[in-house]
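Subject: Sanity check before I submit

Could someone independently write out the structure tokens for this chain? I want to compare against mine line by line before I put it in a report. The sequence has 422 residues.
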Amino acid sequence: MLKVFDFFRIKSKDFNLEHRKTINNISNNISEFPDNIKITLIRNNSCCFREEYKKHTIQINLMSLNKILEVNTNEYLKYVVVEPNVTMEQITDHLLNLKQGSYMLQVTPEFKHITIGGAVNGLGIESSSCKYGLFEKTIFKYEVLLTDGSVIEATANNQYKDLFYALPGSYGTFGLITKIYLYIVPAGKYVRTNYRVLENTKNIENEFKKRIESKNCEFMEGLVMEEKVILSYSNCVNYISLYQWLFNTSRFNYSWSKWYYNHIRDITDKHTKYLEFIPIKDYLFRWDRGAFWFASNRMKCNWYNRIMYGSELTSQKLYQRAKKKDIYNREKEKVVQDLLVPLDNMCDFTNSIKEICNVFPLWLCPIKTFSGEDNIFSLPSEDDIYVDVGVYGSWEENKNLNSDKPDFLIKNKEIEDKLYHN
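---
Independent answer below. Compare away.
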């Protein structure tokens, strides 16, 4: 009788064989393309709002590249090898349920439908970036299909070092990533999460710096609301008491679960300090249902709405709904920007955002950088701390504006100017 382990090992070998066949077929097709032909991708989980740039291009279908090829937990270097269209939920479910024990990616972007390839090309982050940096810093090798049809492996130490550092944030302009090697770490069953209400953004700036330098925090983020600033810092644990499990555990993975943003608001309306335990998968994707606060901006987070519409309010379905809207009207009504600034400039920058568009809340995600690494489109690597300021929400149009340019365009340009000078 075939053992379960042997079954999965054989399946893995089959996947690697299938991967090679698929890449060879794509490679052969690309090598026959005429010069100066634009190539774009057909993907089913893209977070990109614009598809017009794909017109008059040759589109390559990579949707079948959605398999987990290898997991290594036996040696000192623990890693997973995946194809680019593997989603964050797919890899998380796989790693959490390994028979060797539960593992997770060092950085797991917060929306379930984000793909590994998308997180590389688009600079993925999450609250564990306070420890591990941007998503790209958790990767040690890429397999890349170049425009001449050749397939190469790029690492930080081989002849393709420049490509290794150029791929993150390049949006696929240098080649097609066909395989990714990522570090993994043991995962606890729960995340012990602390919340603190602070007076202002200067306080949270100091907390970010202190906790990152002390290296005693696995996850950290903040929220700037109109009336308060909230710090959240967390660590994985494997065991909690029966009392904690019964009375101090929160879940966000069910369709009827309270959306995490509303959960935080309710807690911090009653407490200036609070501790709770969240199951690991619920924590990693806590922002998925409700897509941060976009669902809350549309309707009340009550039992009726969550039961009736909760299954339709995942980040993926909200993205799909937003893509159907006319681009001009969508941009006119909403701002969705992730803006990276040095920690020391965070306070001034968030104040500028308030003056320009008065959108709340703002998501703050601290990001550690590491010295001695080359980057092109990513953050400078000088051991500094940066903060992603997430500006997501609706803004009111100034109809009395004395300009031939639309108000939302002027505001976006003002934000870009402030970002440039920070």
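---
OP: Matches mine. For the report I'm noting this point. Confidence is low (pLDDT under 50) at residues 1-11.
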